[in-house]
Amino acid sequence: MMTSRYDSSGNTSSSTNAKDGNSSASNFDGYAAQLFQEADIDGPMVSRNAFNSLRKETLDEDISEAGSEDEEQIILEHTTVVQQADPAALGGDIGELDELALLLSDTPYKKMKLREKDARKLFQAGDLWASLKCRMDILGIAKMYSTGPYCNENKYPMLLSDAHFKLSKSYAALQCVPQAIDHCNRALEAIPSLGMSNSQVISFKKEVHILLGEALLMASPPKPQASLQYLLASEGCSCSDDLKDPGVRILAAQCHAILGIEKLQQISATRNAEDTLNQRVQQISAKLLTLDGKSKEYERLQQKLEETQNELIEERGFGGVLVNEARLQLDKATDILMFVIDEEEQRLRKKMSDEERKGHPLIQLLWRRACEILFKMSVLEGVAGRIKNQVGHLENITGVQEGYNCISQGLLACVLKEKGAALVALGSTQSDSQLQQAELKKALGAYDDLMDLQAQRFPEGSAKYATSRAEALKLMGNVYVALRQWERAQEHFNEAMDMYASYLGPTSSLVSDLQTRILEVNSYINAPF
């Protein structure tokens, strides 16, 4: 079983061994890196707040506020997505804090509430640093009444915890991840053992754990395993399937997706190790042929050969484990997203037309993320040599695009290239010539769609337009060679070569490669048989 891979020049190379399903490390490394870079599929994290804000406009209830305000309980406000606002519309100069009112207030909660009001106005106006400064002031007030000379923990048990939590949200909004994590942990540590009802503590801990989970996902590099543990802890669950909050489910899905990609990257290192061991086996085997079978050197090398072969078997076994683990994580991420998508689509069907539902920003966002994960799954299946599954994932993506038009052109271009290559690979496994030709014709359709897409992406006459079109023509020429339609292959190769030569120069390696292909095709055209 063979599966096609593309190098940086657009060449097609075979990368999967039929016996063990292993792929070439060098091909996989360059191919996967190129695809991910071109597709730009690892965009900003979808936060719970962003998800909730998109849901809010179509919900009957308000999900952005909870509880009721009173002086003895600091309620947990939900941070909303930052909106750019006109300061004048907020009542004058929002940077001026009412210091007199602050001094005259007679409870710490009133003082903190005044500062928090300013912090929210500044936050909504987009001045995140000024909002952060206000919340630092809030923390100072909380410390004075919680640990200072005015300490009264029994009357105000949650002052300090809530102040740390508010500050952590400001740090998270500014992408100051270490500080956000630090203040989340301080918020948990400051929760008193007495003075608060169990339901209040549980509600507070849930919000802190969710924010911790988000912050760990925003870290560089992200920490998906730790993030997932906090997200599960927020609802007291043992697995992500049991999570109830849709926004938390979205975060959990991203955790599983990142864990799957990490395994996919480890597979690359395993393939490199396999290649090295394979080369060593070949070198030792070649050396043994030149030695006397009874010599000590022969015995030493024979033992070395057995050890190396055992290492190779172990490495292949480890690679298989990684493939299964990556598939498990990506499957779980997809399942969670599909569950949320189904729920949201059902909810929106009751409120709007099908066209409005499909174009809703929330549905667009969810399907885009699902397609990104499906694409990574297709790469994994290609590496594992499961070409039918690979084609299935890619066809699912193109089906979603037809129905929702939600994925980026860069990702779609990569999907179409991969789909064409996978269909060629699938065709090569068919013993029936008609089935093989059917798969190859589907591949031509994918490359034809790719050419149309590239014409939309890049302005005609530009270098990107020419080189992307030349690549598609070259790939189509390869398929025509497989179909033994030599004249059509020659036509596509010649057009691709002319385009490459015009923009890259006649000495380009891509031009040289096509010249070689054209000579080979000409030899078939001019053959006497």
From TrEMBL:
<keyword id="KW-0802">TPR repeat</keyword>
<dbReference type="InterPro" id="IPR011990">
    <property type="entry name" value="TPR-like_helical_dom_sf"/>
</dbReference>
<keyword id="KW-0175">Coiled coil</keyword>
<dbReference type="InterPro" id="IPR019734">
    <property type="entry name" value="TPR_rpt"/>
</dbReference>
<feature type="repeat" description="TPR">
    <location>
        <begin position="470"/>
        <end position="503"/>
    </location>
</feature>
<feature type="region of interest" description="Disordered">
    <location>
        <begin position="1"/>
        <end position="25"/>
    </location>
</feature>
<feature type="coiled-coil region">
    <location>
        <begin position="291"/>
        <end position="318"/>
    </location>
</feature>
<protein>
    <submittedName>
        <fullName>Uncharacterized protein</fullName>
    </submittedName>
</protein>
